[in-house]
Amino acid sequence: MNTMMTLEDIHAIERMREEELEEARALQSMMMPATSLRTGTVIVSHECQPVATVGGDFLDYFELTDGTVGIYLGDVCGKGLPAAMYSALAVGTLRGVHKTGQMPDAVVSLLNKRLLIRGTPRRHCAFQYAVFDPQSCDLHITSAGMPTPLHLSTREDCRFIDLGGIPPGLFATAKYETSSIRLEPGDSVLFFTDGITDARNLRDEEFGSKRLLALCETHRDLAPNDLLEHIFSCIAGFTRGQEQYDDMAAAVFCFSPAP
User: Fold this and answer.
1) Which of 93, 74, 71, 85 is nearest to 167 (CA)?
2) How many domains does the chain have?
3) In Å, what is the CA distance from 63 to each residue of 3, 132, 146, 178?
4) Where are the alpha helices (DSSP H) in the chain?
5) Is 20 within the bounds of a domain?
6) Tell me: the pLDDT tens digits for 183-221?
7) 252: buried, middle or exposed (CB in 10 Å: 19+, 13-18, 0-12)?
8) Which residues are bridge partners to 61 per DSSP?
9) Which CATH number do you get for residue 211?
10) Tens digit of pLDDT for each residue in 61-100?
């Protein structure tokens, strides 16, 4: 029996793999917001660029039944299809947890417990969850291994919000805290994964947090979609000639009440 593969067989297998990856990409895109969110007080937009057809970065934003607005952002360890599958597990685990009206630290603690039950070797995800209360103008944030968000203030210098935490799915003893900042009308918060600041150019220099801060200082008045477009354009220019090596995702959360 001849078991040798022909060139036609190899091409058929490659086409099948490409079709499967494209289907996986389409399914993963369905876990992302289809459009920007616009409420009476909030505008949220996002941008994602996986390094492969699919990736491990994930995010969502939504209105809650009590009138607050939630947003989460996650970054799975690794790249490609395995990372995308774990991100699907994390998103599925979040269903029914993040829309309960609980404070972010309680949500992340429950996510940690559930991911530990479904422990996957060599896989974990950094995670960040925030809830904005339009009545108090307070944004409550819990971070678990993610880069600190950037507060784009209309009255003061832009600054990184000091947060810390252990990625969920690693330790049963992990503790999480909620930090809060008060937003003024016109303020925005940039949430992002480390693929943004870790992007490197041909001289092996990182784009870095200082460049990101300076860029946002200069262009803080841009609409969320325009700011994201400018950030990703600047990173593309900075890394020109160098292959992207990590997934990139970002979201701009803008407090923009009607006058």
Assistant:
1) 74
2) 1
3) 57, 10, 23, 19
4) 7-29, 80-94, 104-117, 194-197, 208-219, 224-238
5) no
6) 999 999 999 999 999 999 999 999 999 999 999 999 999
7) buried
8) 71
9) 3.60.40.10
10) 999 888 899 999 988 876 666 666 777 777 777 776 666 6
